[in-house]
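Translate structure to sequence.
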């Protein structure tokens, strides 16, 4: 099975997308899909929490999908980007990246829909970031790219431990 990661930013220019949403979106969206059409969507709710909408089959079959809270209100900085990956190609083993209220990049680890770890990756100074993307090669290597306060592109790279590069 091949997996893909899609990162979407909701802009004020598309109010019809927000109006059609069957759940309260207050910020950004990240989505993971697999070749069967199964979807896990992560989004920031209107109160600032990070939620997931997950289920089997096409997302249009909304009655098959369940909304759950992943990060409570007050942990994630409101209106900041979110990114997600299916770690090592497994949609039941996910990583979600977000910016916290202290302006640090954070990672959430989920196994079978349950949060098992949440921690800061130790990289701060990202309070004005408008972009965040994550990719994995399916073999345990992760790249998280974001824009720092100075409008510089930065990348966190994981291959057994985290390292940082600025471009």
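Result:
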């Amino acid at each position: 099975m091949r997996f893909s990661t899609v990162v979407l930013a909701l802009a004020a220019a598309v109010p019809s997308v927000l109006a059609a949403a069957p759940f309260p979106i207050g910020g950004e969206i990240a989505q993971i899909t697999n070749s069967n059409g199964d979807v896990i969507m992560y989004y920031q709710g209107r109160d600032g929490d990070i939620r997931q909408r997950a289920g089997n089959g096409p997302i249009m079959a909304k009655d098959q999908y369940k909304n759950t809270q992943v990060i409570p209100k007050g942990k994630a900085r409101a209106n900041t980007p979110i990114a997600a990956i299916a770690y090592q190609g497994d949609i039941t083993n996910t990583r979600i990246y977000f910016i916290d209220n202290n302006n640090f990049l954070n990672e959430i680890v989920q196994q079978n829909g349950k949060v098992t770890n949440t921690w800061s990756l130790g990289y701060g100074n990202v309070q004005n970031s408008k972009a965040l993307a994550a990719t994995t090669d399916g073999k345990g290597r992760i790249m998280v790219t974001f824009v720092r306060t100075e409008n510089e592109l930065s990348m966190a790279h994981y291959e057994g431990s985290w390292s940082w590069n600025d471009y």
